[in-house]
């Protein structure tokens, strides 16, 4: 039927209106990035004031949009953009509160910020007055030390924040010095001795501050030497809400224990097949002995990826572009990097952990045992194709603007979902291969339990390490690197939950959509790759054409207790 002119125009308008959301997402990201280049002191009253204004303006812009004219994909973008702005605003207010608590330790901050503000627009400084201000900072440092001794900082989190503020202030002074030095003769003459002195004084103060006692005993400090920052229940709940996860921390731990029970049962079956009865830990130790000699691990990785690709192709599970097959690559992790990653890392390339000549004998053996055949068999395709490598390949090509909405529940969840699918499809044929897959699934269960207990303030890093060794069978060095990566590697508090819960979401949705014949495996998996790494509940909304509302909150109970 031929469309009338009014209907045609309305259709075009709706299409343009939906497309405008991608432009708004890009514009918001550009605004934040540009302002961060101008307001370089991210912990300062000026920064807080400017970004409060930015977030307020953007929320007003969103409120003026007609949400009801958006299709489901546009509504998803709207909800996620608003979520990001509100999350940024929340973090800003938390940082503002922290700064107000530590401001007495940096009484010289305002003077340094004032100098940098003038330099920002190229104002010619009165060099003598600027030198006096620089010199005054050293006197204020002594005052700050007296204040800190009288009123110590409360905890490690605020101490680390103060050290970060001092680093910003040093960088700000350097920015001023580098801008004028040798270009402005008066400034150069006055500052040749003064600037290095004040920079050194700020550095010494930072080191002094790091050694001062705190008023609270920090549970994050223990014999492990790993010092992180437990975020507490309120922050965990706020993050779960933002990730569209409808369960409490206690419910998440309960799910992890239930998944552990399934793993234990499957482990006992595989152990019996290997002749170890129900003592699966003995079977696991046997599996760890099957490793290749140093120098041969890259060949094994290549062979295992080709094996996985052949299996996936035989079942027509997902579209793999020829260039994706051609462009993946590999590299080796250094000794230092393996302190944070004793197995693989993945993405554009797979990064391989294996012994180096710098390791002592015990560390070399642990690296060999931790990267045995069965563990690698279950994990190579997690890191490469169809896991992270294929996912990153596709997100660079389909709706790349959605990368700012990326969540580890979709990133790690997608890769671990493939481990579940490969298990369901019979990829793991031998008892040894099954134990390799189950080891990783148990590790993901343990990550939920130890990371939540840590962030809720009930476990120390050493307890987390011991739990991984005793409950899952990790090598001690691998357990240490796992915990070190979790709490000091720059990952968010929910990152370790994301593997299991993202996979459980995908697995549940696969059952809902594919098992009911609404989509084939390939259609379902391709659709996910084309929508970007957005929260999985919102991917579900897109493929089911859900009627989202402007006040939408998480409602999908994806796990059956």
Secondary structure layout:
Layout: H1 5-38, H2 45-63, H3 72-102, H4 109-120, H5 127-150, H6 156-180, H7 185-210, H8 233-242, H9 249-273, H10 280-288, H11 297-315, H12 322-327, E1 329-332, E2 349-352, H13 361-370, H14 373-383, H15 388-395, H16 408-424, H17 431-455, H18 461-472, H19 476-488, H20 495-513, H21 521-531, H22 536-543
Parallel strand pairs: 1-2
Give a brief rundown of this model:
This protein has 22 helices and two strands. The chain has a two-stranded parallel ribbon.
Task: Using brief descriptors, characterize the structure shown.
22 helices, disordered N terminus, two-stranded parallel sheet, 3 domains, 2 strands, 561 residues, mainly alpha, 1% strand
Q: If you had to describe this structure to a student in words, what would you say it looks like?
A:
Residues 1-15 have low confidence and may be disordered. The chain starts with a helix and ends in an 18-residue tail after the last helix. The protein contains 22 helices and two strands. α2 (45-63) runs antiparallel to α3 and α17 (431-455) packs antiparallel against α18 (461-472). The protein is mainly alpha-helical.
User: Termini distance?
Assistant: 50 Å
Radius of gyration: 27 Å
Which sequence of strands runs across the widest sheet? Answer: 1-2
- Based on secondary structure, the structural category is mainly alpha
- Beta-strand share of residues: under 5%
Order of helices and strands: HHHHHHHHHHHHEEHHHHHHHHHH
Number of domains: 3
Low-confidence stretches: 1-15
Query: How many helices?
Result: 22
Average of the residue pLDDT scores: 92
> What's the main sheet like?
2 strands, parallel
What is the share of helical residues? 55-70%
**What overall form do the CA principal axes indicate?**
globular
How many strands appear in the DSSP assignment? Answer: 2
